[in-house]
Write a structure and sequence with these properties.
16 helices; GH10_dom; alpha+beta; 5-stranded antiparallel beta sheet; Jelly Rolls; 5 domains; polysaccharide degradation; CenC_carb-bd; 8-stranded parallel β-barrel; GH
C-alpha cells in the first residue's frame, strides 16, 4: 500500500479500496510485482484523489523540502502554510517528491494557494508550478504546469494541468518564480487525476477531509497572510538552528544548560567557543527588509561562563549596498546577566534597500557564551493617534499632600522602617523660589514654620511617607517643592543627598533630588503618571544611617504650564526682537508716497534652531528635506565621536563625518562638534582601557590634534569632554588638572571654535550630581584652572518640563555670564499631544530666557532617535502633533506682515532678528536687509 494510504486513516483506506475493487492481497501482490504502469496504478489507488502528501502543511514540513532554500511552516488562525525563504535564485522554492504516486500518461489537475512574503521590495512577483523529472536516458526534463502573479499580503490561486510521459528516477513538483530574496508562500496543494472515475472518488474523499463535496483541498482559501514571523525566521529556535548561521563561533540549541532553562518556550540557542566580541549567531534577511519601514527588535538573552556576571549583548544590522559599501547599525543593546534572562529592545529604520542584509548578535568578550531564548524583529502595529487629554477639575496649584504644616500633628504621616518622626519649629515660612513662580495669578501659600524631624535612621530608604493614591490624576503634570536639611553629629557641615520620591505600585519615581546640609535647601522636580496606579505613596530618603533629616513644606500640585505663556511671549518680544524703521525712497532720494503698499517678510531667523543628524539618514530624501526646511544648525549624532572614528586603534574613519560636513556646508548650515572626548567609562573604546597613563595621554593628544586640525575653522562649537558631572574616566587616570588642559589644547589647535561643557539633568531637578549649583561649581573650577570655556551646554533630555523648574536652573547658570545652549532636546510621550505640550513648554521657556543663545534637537525622525517616543516626524513621513507644534512656534517667532508707507515715507515695526525681504507691491520691486541684535532702534534706508 502506498504511503498516501497511511495519511488517510482507516476510513479513507477502506473507501479507496472499495472504489478500486482492491483488497489487501492485491496490494501485497502489486507491491511485489515489477513497477509497470498497471501495478503503479494499483499501487497508487489513492492517487485517484489528491496525490500530495501533507497538502495543507498541518504536519509541518513533513514530506516537503526547500529546493535550494530554507523551508518553514507558519500556523496562523487555524491555517498552515509553507514559507520558502533565504532564496537567492528564481528557481528556488518549496518542493515534494511525487514520482511514486504518479501514473504514466495520466492527466492531472493542479491547484494551490500561493503568495509572496510581506518583507521584501517586491509588491508583486510571479509564482510558477513545475514538475522536474530526472531520467537515466533523457537527463532532466521540466514540465511547466502554470504561473500566476502574486501580490504581497494576498493569496492567489495557481492552477494548471500536466501529464508525465516518463516517470524517471525522480519526479519533483515545486513552486518557484519570485526574484531573489522574495519568500514564496504555499498552502493547500492539490494534484488530482482528471479521469471520470476520480471525480466521484474526489467527491467522497472531499467529505472525508472536511471540504465541500467535490472541492479539492486547494480551493479552500487559507486565512489571510499574517507576517507575524517578522524579519527573522525561527525566532524561538523550535526548528533548531534552521535559518541561523554561526558567525565565528560554534552554536547549538538545547532545552537546558546545567540549571539554566528557557524563560519561555522549550528551547534556547547557545553561541559558544567565542574568541572575539563580534562572534555570535546570524540570520540573512536579504530581500525581506522593507524601505522606510520602522522595525522593532526584541530578544531574551543571557551570558554564561568566562568568569563574568554581566556583559553587553548587542543586536547588529549588517548591510552591503549595491555599490559595495558596508554599513553596521546597532539595533539594541542590554547589559545581560548570568543569573537571569535579560530583555534587549531596540528599533531601526532602513532608508535604502541593500543588496545584502543580515542581523547578528554580538558584544560579550571572548570566552563568554551567549544564550538566546528568542530573537524577534518585526514591524510594530502603529497605535491609533490619541487626541489631547482633557482634565476634569484639575485643581491647579492645590497641594495634594495633607497636613504639610503639621497642624494636626503626625496625621496622614507614617515612618518607613524604624526611624522616628517628630515635629520641630524653625523652618522657612515661604515656599521655595521655583514653586512660587508657578502661582501666576494668586499669592503662593505660606508655611507656618513647623517641620518634620526624622531620627534613628538605620538605612538610606528610611524616612517619612504619606499615601496619595486617590489625589492623583493620570497624565497630569505635577510640580514638587520642599525644604530639606540634614544633620550629622559625626560629620558636622557635611551635605547629603536627599530625594523626594514616589512609590507607584512598587516602582520608584523621582520627584526631586538635592544635596542638603544644615542649611535649608529647596528640592524641585516634576513627574507624571500615564497609567492609573493602585497604590502611590510619597516619601523622603537618601542620607545614610545615623543622619537626621528635616522636611518642611512638601508641596505636590498640578501645574497649569500654559498659564505662563502670555508672560513668556512678552519676554520673548523684549529679548528676541528689535525696533526697526525702514525708510523707503526712490533712486533719486525722494521718499515713497504715503499709502504705498508694502509686504515685509522674514526669510531666515538668525536664532540658531538645529538638530542632530546622522549619515545613514542622508539617503532618505524626506528626512533631509524636513531638516533643511525646519532647522538652521546641525550636530552629528555619532559620526564625530572618538569611538566612531577610531573604534580600533590606528584605524581612522572620517568618511561619514566628512560627508555630513560637506552636506551641511553645501546648504549653509553651521555645525557643532559633538564630542571630542566622553568622560563616562561605558563610552570608552576597548583598546583605550588597558593603556597606561602616559600612553592614554598620548592617545588623547593625538585625538584632539587630529580631529581639530582636520576640521579647523569648520565647526563653530565643540563639546570638549562630554558629561564630566556623570563620569571621571580621564580624570581618574590622568588627574583632575587634565580636564582644564583638554580645553587649552583644543583652543590651541582651533582658536576660533567656541568650547562647551555639556551635561544632562541640569534643568529638571532630579539629579543632585548635575544640579545647577553643582554645574556652576564645576564650570567655575575649570575656568579657575585655565579652561577657556565659551559656552554652557544643557542636553535637554527632559521627561516632564515645568516652566519654573527650568527657569530656576537657567537663572542660576546665567550668573556665569556665558551663553547657554540646549544641545540635545528631546521630550518623550506616547501621546503625541502630550509630547507637543511638553515640547512647547521647554521651547517657550528657553526662547524667553536671555541667556539662551541656541536650541538643538537630538533628532526628529522616528526610528533614528535614542528615545522611542520623542520624534517629530513618523517613519511614514507624517509630521505628528509635536512636529506641527514646532512648526507653529517657528512661524510665531518670525515676522511677516503687510503694511503701507507712512507720512514720513517709512515703515516702522518691531521684528525678530534675521534676514528680511521688503516688497513694494505697487511697483513689483524688492529689497533685502538684515536685522541684527541691538538695544537701540535700527534704521534701514532702502532705495528703489
Amino acid at each position: 500500500m502506498s504511503k498516501f494510504f497511511h495519511s488517510l486513516g482507516r476510513k479513507g483506506k477502506d473507501l479507496v479500496k472499495k472504489k478500486l475493487g482492491s483488497n489487501e492481497n492485491r496490494d501485497s501482490a502489486a507491491a511485489a510485482a515489477a513497477p509497470s504502469s498497471a501495478t503503479r496504478m494499483g499501487d497508487s489507488g489513492a492517487a485517484m484523489y489528491n496525490i500530495m502528501m501533507n497538502p495543507t502543511f498541518d504536519q509541518g514540513t513533513q514530506w516537503w523540502f526547500g529546493m535550494g532554500c530554507s523551508l518553514s511552516v507558519n500556523h496562523e488562525n487555524g491555517s498552515s502554510y509553507g514559507v520558502g525563504h533565504g532564496r537567492t535564485e528564481t528557481w528556488q522554492g518549496i518542493a515534494q517528491e511525487i514520482g511514486e504516486r504518479l501514473v504514466l500518461d495520466e492527466e492531472y489537475r493542479f491547484e494551490a494557494w500561493v503568495g509572496i512574503g510581506a518583507y521584501g521590495p517586491e509588491e508583486q512577483a510571479p509564482v510558477t508550478a513545475t514538475v522536474k523529472v530526472e531520467t537515466e536516458s533523457d537527463g532532466t526534463k521540466y514540465n511547466w504546469i502554470g504561473s500566476v502573479t502574486a501580490t504581497k499580503g494576498q493569496w492567489v490561486l495557481l492552477s494548471g494541468k500536466f501529464k508525465i510521459d516518463n516517470l524517471g528516477k525522480s519526479s519533483v513538483l515545486y513552486i518557484e518564480g519570485p526574484p531573489s530574496g522574495v519568500d514564496v508562500l504555499v498552502s493547500s496543494v492539490a494534484v488530482i487525476p482528471t479521469t471520470p472515475g476520480a471525480s466521484e472518488l474526489a467527491s467522497q474523499m472531499g467529505n472525508l477531509m472536511g471540504h465541500p463535496a467535490g472541492t479539492p483541498a486547494s480551493s479552500m482559501q487559507p486565512a489571510a497572510i499574517q507576517p507575524s514571523i517578522g524579519l527573522l525566521h525561527n525566532p524561538t529556535f523550535d526548528d533548531g538552528l534552521k535559518s541561523w548561521t554561526q558567525k565565528g563561533c560554534k552554536a547549538y540549541v538545547t532545552e537546558s544548560l546545567g540549571a539554566i532553562g528557557p524563560e519561555t518556550g522549550k528551547y534556547f540557542a547557545v553561541a559558544s567557543q567565542r574568541t572575539e566580541t563580534w562572534q555570535g549567531i546570524e540570520q540573512d534577511i536579504t530581500g525581506r527588509i522593507e524601505e522606510s519601514t520602522l522595525y522593532h527588535v526584541s530578544a531574551k538573552v543571557r551570558v554564561n561562563g568566562g568568569g563574568v556576571k554581566e556583559a553587553m549583548v548587542m543586536a547588529t544590522l549588517y548591510m552591503k549596498g549595491y555599490d559595495g559599501k558596508e554599513q553596521y547599525m546597532t539595533l539594541g543593546r542590554v547589559n545581560a546577566s548570568s543569573a537571569q534572562w535579560s530583555e534587549l529592545k531596540g528599533e531601526f529604520l532602513v532608508n535604502k534597500l541593500p543588496a545584502r542584509a543580515s542581523i547578528y548578535m554580538e558584544g560579550p568578550p571572548g570566552g563568554v557564551d551567549v544564550l538566546y531564548n528568542s530573537i524577534f524583529c518585526f514591524k510594530p502595529e502603529r497605535p491609533k493617534v490619541e487626541g489631547p487629554i482633557l482634565f476634569q477639575n484639575p485643581r491647579f496649584g492645590t497641594n495634594i499632600v495633607h497636613n504639610t504644616n503639621f497642624d494636626s500633628g503626625l496625621k496622614h504621616w507614617y515612618p518607613q522602617g524604624n526611624c522616628r518622626l517628630s515635629i520641630a519649629h524653625g523652618c522657612p515660612t515661604l515656599l521655595g523660589p521655583a514653586a512660587q513662580k508657578s502661582f501666576m495669578d494668586s499669592p503662593p501659600p505660606g508655611l507656618r514654620g513647623s517641620y518634620l524631624l526624622i531620627t534613628n535612621r538605620s538605612y538610606d530608604w528610611e524616612g517619612p511617607a504619606q499615601t496619595i493614591t486617590e489625589r492623583l490624576q493620570t497624565n497630569m503634570s505635577y510640580q514638587v517643592s520642599a525644604w530639606v536639611a540634614t544633620r550629622s553629629p559625626d560629620q558636622p557641615g557635611m551635605k547629603h543627598k536627599v530625594d523626594v520620591c514616589l512609590s507607584v505600585d512598587g516602582k520608584w519615581v523621582q520627584g526631586g533630588e538635592v544635596l542638603a546640609g544644615d542649611v535649608w535647601e529647596e528640592v524641585v522636580g516634576s513627574f507624571r503618571l500615564e497609567k492609573q496606579p493602585e497604590n502611590v505613596h510619597v516619601y523622603l530618603q537618601g542620607p545614610g544611617a545615623g543622619v537626621d533629616v528635616m522636611l518642611a513644606g512638601l508641596h505636590i500640585f498640578a501645574v497649569d504650564r500654559s498659564a505662563r505663556f502670555p508672560m513668556l511671549r512678552e519676554r520673548t518680544d523684549q529679548i528676541r526682537k528689535r525696533d526697526v524703521v525702514v525708510k523707503l525712497q526712490s533712486s533719486n532720494g525722494e521718499p515713497l508716497a504715503p499709502g504705498t503698499r508694502v509686504t515685509v517678510r522674514q526669510n531666515r531667523s538668525s536664532f540658531p534652531l538645529g538638530s542632530a543628524i546622522n549619515h545613514y539618514s542622508l539617503e532618505n530624501s524626506a528626512y533631509t528635506k524636513f531638516f533643511l526646511d525646519t532647522f538652521n544648525w546641525a550636530v552629528f549624532e555619532n559620526e564625530l565621536k572618538w569611538g566612531w572614528i577610531e573604534k580600533l586603534q590606528g584605524e581612522l574613519h572620517y568618511e561619514n563625518a566628512d560627508d555630513l560636513l560637506q552636506f551641511c556646508e553645501r546648504n549653509g548650515i553651521p555645525c557643532r562638534g559633538h564630542c571630542i572626548l566622553w568622560e563616562t567609562e561605558d563610552t570608552i573604546q576597548d583598546w583605550l582601557k588597558p593603556l597606561a597613563p602616559p600612553e592614554l595621554e598620548e592617545a588623547v593628544h593625538s585625538r584632539i590634534a587630529g580631529l581639530l586640525s582636520r576640521y579647523k575653522g569648520r565647526f563653530r562649537h565643540y563639546d570638549v569632554n562630554n558629561e564630566m558631572l556623570h563620569g571621571s574616566y580621564y580624570k581618574d587616570r590622568l588627574g583632575p588638572q587634565f580636564l582644564p588642559y583638554l580645553f587649552q589644547l583644543a583652543h590651541q589647535v582651533d582658536p576660533e571654535a567656541v568650547l562647551f561643557v555639556n551635561d544632562y539633568h541640569i534643568e529638571d531637578g532630579c539629579d543632585c550630581k548635575s544640579s545647577p549649583t553643582a554645574y556652576v561649581e564645576h564650570i567655575v573650577d575649570l575656568i579657575h584652572n585655565g579652561a577657556p570655556i565659551g559656552g554652557i551646554g544643557l542636553q535637554g533630555h527632559i521627561d516632564v518640563p515645568v516652566g519654573p523648574v527650568i527657569q530656576h536652573a537657567l537663572d542660576h547658570l546665567a550668573t556665569l555670564g556665558l551663553p547657554i545652549w540646549f544641545t540635545e532636546i528631546d521630550v518623550e510621550s506616547v501621546n503625541e499631544f502630550t509630547r507637543a505640550d511638553d515640547l512647547e513648554v521647554l521651547l517657550r521657556e528657553a526662547f524667553a530666557h536671555p541667556a539662551i543663545e541656541g536650541l538643538m534637537f537630538w533628532g526628529f525622525w522616528e526610528g533614528t532617535m535614542c528615545r522611542k517616543n520623542a520624534h517629530l516626524v513618523d517613519s511614514d513621513k507624517r509630521v505628528n502633533e509635536a512636529g506641527l507644534r514646532l512648526l507653529a512656534l517657528k512661524e510665531e517667532w518670525q515676522t511677516s506682515f503687510e503694511s503701507v508707507v507712512n507720512e514720513q515715507g517709512e515703515v516702522p515695526f518691531r521684528g525678530f532678528l534675521g534676514d528680511y525681504t521688503i516688497s513694494v507691491d505697487d511697483f513689483g520691486l524688492t529689497q533685502t536687509f538684515e536685522l541684527v541684535k541691538g538695544d537701540e532702534p535700527a534704521y534701514v534706508e532702502l532705495s528703489f
